[in-house]
Write a structure and sequence with these properties.
Length: about 170
């Protein structure tokens, strides 16, 4: 294997794995949950997605169907991951904390692995599947949009409800 290929593979696989490992370590412990800031990540990813889609020609009907399926899959995974996140309210201070469950962390690792496997298989067989690599990337981007946005929404709704209950009981 030549050095350039090893470098490309590190950037394609190794660097994202480093970030995922850091995220897992960060999410393994309880940390403060600020509901008022939970809109930022979804807003950024939606903005980036809109910019990506407006920079290309409109998709065809089959692409739209694939995009809808990818988005729906992301929504389902995001809801599930949000439900797996433990949210607690301090009864005295009403400070919210969250901690991702081990199953939630495994879910993200599984999504990452499946995403890269699908990307590689689909990219290698794009012409046989009658799709472009851009369409594959767009579908995977929409999967991420659904996952991030729904995860944050589910957590924000549950955290708000738990905070209301804690304040009512005080």
């Amino acid at each position: 294997m030549d050095g350039a290929r090893i470098d490309r593979e590190f950037w394609a696989y190794g660097l994202p794995l480093v970030f995922i490992a850091l995220a897992i370590l960060r999410n393994a412990r309880s940390r403060r949950l600020r509901v008022e800031r939970m809109w930022i990540a979804p807003a950024l990813i939606i903005f980036a997605t809109v910019m990506a889609f407006t920079a290309q020609k409109p998709p065809g009907p089959w692409s739209i169907l694939a995009y809808a399926l990818a988005l729906a899959t992301g929504v389902a995974l995001g809801w599930w991951r949000g439900r797996l996140t433990h949210i607690a309210v301090d009864p005295d201070t009403h400070v919210l904390t969250s901690r991702t469950s081990p199953l939630g962390m495994l879910l993200i690792l599984g999504v990452f692995a499946v995403r890269f496997a699908l990307r590689n298989v689909a990219s290698a067989n794009a012409s046989a599947l009658h799709v472009t690599t851009t369409q594959i990337a767009d579908a995977l981007l929409l999967l991420a949009v659904g996952l991030v946005c729904t995860n944050r929404l589910e957590m924000a709704l549950r955290a708000t409800r738990l905070l209301k209950e804690a304040r009512a009981g005080a």
